[in-house]
């Protein structure tokens, strides 16, 4: 049977009432398919595209299964980021509005633990948290897991990835063995699916993705532009398309801070979200973005997964993401719940290859988009300004101003057209910059590669090692280089950091002793913790 109505789902009247109040008309496919299965008690792996309602798909069964008369913790939802924990917790509260006696609480790092402990003591049945803080509470015995019957891993593939795995294992191992475990994400790489067997009992795989991993209502474009021109290109796109809200993804925290400064200097309402900000600051930025006080959110991948903000109609990959999965999640911040969205990815030279990998992974083609010309931008700006002029003419009394203009024309022997043109110039500011953006040609790219011959790592006889330092460690580049030099007796030259949750970094070492170095590096510990190092390959490069 193909369920298309909430009425047909085995859910309580209280939930139906809240769904009606929220305004969901019919269940999304992932909801229609997974709610009955989860309610039946089975473990589930749910994969559905971004923005298709996975949150309610696991939240409704949680609310139905929690016993309001038992004041102990009964369900845990684990999320990779604090913002997501807050958001999921809000959604569960909304859905549970008419279910009396069920208390939920988000617990995440960066928020005073005392406040959380106090709230937990009052009897919370559903906790939505980031793994680190959940473990913290388990260790303090402020979270007791004896009555836990459901554990949900939202963004499961991310949670089971190296950086989070130990934490997740620790939590799962402490919950009752007969618990029900459900995993949700828009992406489920094969390696992860194998891992799920360790934590689930005969899971039912519910996969509602179509051929493509991304939703069809996101128009995906790429723009070839060299690094130096990215800022100008971004501004032009924003000026021409005028998105209501947009998210711009950068690969580094520093990069996002720098971009925010540049955008603010140009008069845009932009702010940054990344892992180096204090939690209060992160909360302020998210609130401002949700309210539209800022309309451009410049973020690292901390905002890539799960975040649901209405009216995000554009996503920019200012830097192309390192992982193909992240591309799917990043662009998925737009085009949610059936809305339209557009994404632009900036690529240049060698990155074209990475883009092709993304296309292969998502089974989607990115369409080339040209850089808007100054004329395009001017046309938009002039049209917007003239609309304001027209509205003013129609809506206000201009008698006094007409007299002034008449007098001016007479005294100075000017035509009204000349006066009007001068006023337009004054009002719109100086003419727009004449900076010329050249599109990089392939020939040019080849030429520059030739000129640089001998300067790439490979040509200097170096190889790159990929280091996964684990999410929890606040590791700086110098710690890694120090530890490597100490252990392996080589001078590791750090070639760059990519800070997806501070997890990944690369180090370049001489090819001749790469094998030996890799062997030795198995013993390396940073701040007492083991790290994972391997030769960079296509996936992690
Ligand atoms: N049945 C429904 N009808 C209409 N809108 C819905 C329905 N279910 C959920 N939504 C809305 O769709 C939006 C996206 O939902 P949600 O955040 O759960 O997506 P998701 O599948 O978890 O996406 P992601 O992979 O990005 O985490 C939310 O704003 C949510 O309120
Ligand atoms: Mg989600």
From TrEMBL:
Residues 35-206 form the Helicase ATP-binding domain. It catalyses: ATP + H2O = ADP + phosphate + H(+). Residues 4-32 form the DEAD-box RNA helicase Q domain. Keywords: ATP-binding, Cytoplasm, Helicase, Hydrolase, Nucleotide-binding, Stress response. GO terms for cellular component: cytosol; ribosome. GO terms for biological process: response to cold. It is an enzyme of class 3 (hydrolase). PROSITE patterns: DEAD_ATP_HELICASE, HELICASE_ATP_BIND_1, HELICASE_CTER, Q_MOTIF. It comes from the Bacteria. Residues 217-378 form the Helicase C-terminal domain. SMART domains: DEXDc, HELICc. SUPFAM superfamilies: P-loop containing nucleoside triphosphate hydrolases. InterPro entries: DbpA/CsdA_RNA-bd_dom, DEAD/DEAH_box_helicase_dom, DEAD/DEAH_RhlB, DEAD_box_RNA_helicases, DeaD_dimer, Helicase_ATP-bd, Helicase_C-like, Nucleotide-bd_a/b_plait_sf. GO terms for molecular function: ATP binding; hydrolase activity; RNA helicase activity; RNA strand annealing activity. Its EC number is 3.6.4.13. Belongs to the DEAD box helicase family. This is ATP-dependent RNA helicase CshA. It comes from Intestinibacter bartlettii CAG:1329.
